[in-house]
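dude i think i finally got it to work??
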Amino acid sequence: MIEETEPETVTAPEVLDTVAAAAGRPILLCFDGSDASKHAIAVAGEIAGARPAVVLHLWEPPGASWMTADAFGGMPAWGSEMTEVDSIVRERAGRLVTEGVSLAKEQGFEAQGRLEPSPGANWRAILEIADEIDAELVVLGARGMSVVESAILGSVSNAVVHHAKRPVLVVPGVS
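look at this
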């Protein structure tokens, strides 16, 4: 004979507490200023509504990768020029994250910006930051690269999807 058991019941306050707890976790909106990332924020706003969000912009600080050897194989002395370039790059990155936060707020997000230097592997930085803030969802725009372009250049969204331990929304670009 099959023993009948009472189904587990959950009261309305418990459900609301669960929803409220999930709503307190931010969504990570990755923003690089491209049309694809702008579109991704708009789509995420339609899906998620008014929620906490962190708009992440990764920027590449000027450094050794920007310097080229002179004709005799030595490294040029950049000094004040490199400081000026660094200042310009930081200023542009700051404007981009501010733009991303504004777009996110227009979509109803309770958004704050986060500006981080790129360590080289942007996908890894995105996932580390998502873990750090315990993001409920990571949102990225896809640039629509061909298979060949993606194989040669690499795809940040593809790497994030394959290495993530949390939900990821990749929004295709507008065609």
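The first strand starts at residue 27 and ends at 30.
im so relieved honestly
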